[in-house]
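agent> Task received from the user: take the single chain below, predict its 3D structure, and emit structure tokens. No templates, no multimer pairing.
agent> Plan: (1) validate residues, (2) run structure prediction, (3) serialize to tokens, (4) report one or two observations.
agent> Step 1 OK, no nonstandard residues flagged.
tool_call: predict_structure(input=
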Amino acid sequence: MPVSPLIASAAYSFTANTGQFNKSFEGLADEEWLRRPGDRSNHMLWMAGHVIWARAAVPGFLGQPWTQPWFQLFTPGPKAADASEYPMPNEMLQAFAEVSTRLTAALEAATDEALSAPARERLPSADKTLAGNIMFLAHHDTYHLGQAAYIRAWLGHGGLGG
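)
tool_result: status=success, residues=162
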């Protein structure tokens, strides 16, 4: 089923970002997932978990919730959890693949009527509709994947292009 024109650009962004996510985290050693460029910076594991947590919001908005017991570690706010509390990198990669599949299915099934309805969650969308919230989360996805690309380069890995 084709994606509604109301969220077509968001769907495109999520699809493109899926490839960027996979490239960003490819080949990282387990200890690199927890390195931070500064004391106030997030590490790659937090970045991955936060993207997964935010992507899971979209199917949830559309009546198809999906959650993980570790989501609370990746919500906005203080991020001072001990390294032992975080899931392992392979679990994060599996969760990303699953949430991305669910996200794509939810976007394809979304009706214009549902997307045009007022959003129940207060996100900084332009029009306060569910479609607006989805558009915001696509931007949010891109923002954090840009951060992950920077940290990847800081860790000494190659860039994402080419």
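agent> Step 4: summary for the user.
The chain has one domain: 8-154.
agent> Done.
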